[in-house]
Specification:
4 strands; 191 residues; two-stranded parallel sheet; 7 helices; mainly alpha; 50% helix; two-stranded antiparallel ribbon
Length: 191
């Protein structure tokens, strides 16, 4: 029987681990997928339980295994670009460029390769190339997600207009101190 996959994502320190641990404790039919990381373990973290803690060398070995299995996986190359130390004449650059010239490469892999090359060129301090690939990756990502900033700008404009004037619900209190306020609750509807 197939189950459901839930992804808990939040910034570092937001409480993901606490939330997931509480959920696993309450729901015995939930299993965790354990991620790999190259960072060092924090106090109380256990290898194989909280994360699989790998050295950069072992992480590189795993990424190379993945690339050998699926050489055109753009995001594998992106992860490689985060760890590997590249030189300007690195043959891996030619490999990534050759995949980008392929018309059969999927959009998601094209995005991964562009982000990978952007990251490599940033490390090599070749900023014109870096931004060329970064801009293309972001253009493709925007296209893939069908995101257009116009919608957000319209929403933010409506929010801003809604809060131009303070709500009439805030009235000065009859207290002696002038910086204390009495707030009455009201429902504000928007159209």
């Amino acid at each position: 029987m197939l189950g459901s996959l839930f992804i808990v994502a939040a910034p570092s320190g937001a409480g993901k681990t606490s939330l997931v641990n509480a959920l696993v404790e309450q729901q015995k039919n939930i299993a965790l997928s354990i991620s790999y990381t190259t960072r060092t373990a924090r106090d109380g973290e256990v290898d194989g339980k909280d994360y699989f803690f790998l050295s950069e060398k072992d992480f590189l070995k795993n990424i190379y295994k993945v690339i050998n299995l699926k050489p055109d996986w753009g995001h594998a190359h992106y992860h490689l670009s985060r760890i590997k130390k590249y030189k300007k004449n690195d043959p891996q650059l030619a490999v990534m460029h050759s995949f980008l010239s392929s018309t059969s490469l999927s959009v998601i892999d094209r995005i991964g390769f562009n982000f990978a090359l952007s990251h490599v060129y940033e490390k090599l301090e070749m900023h014109d190339e870096q931004f060329k690939f970064l801009n293309e990756a972001n253009r493709l990502r925007k296209e893939e997600t069908k995101y257009f900033i116009d919608k957000d700008q319209q929403l933010f404009s409506r929010i801003k207009d809604s809060f131009k004037f303070p709500p009439s619900a805030v009235k000065k209190s009859s207290c002696k101190s002038s910086n204390q306020f009495k707030i009455s609750h009201e429902i504000i509807s928007s159209s």
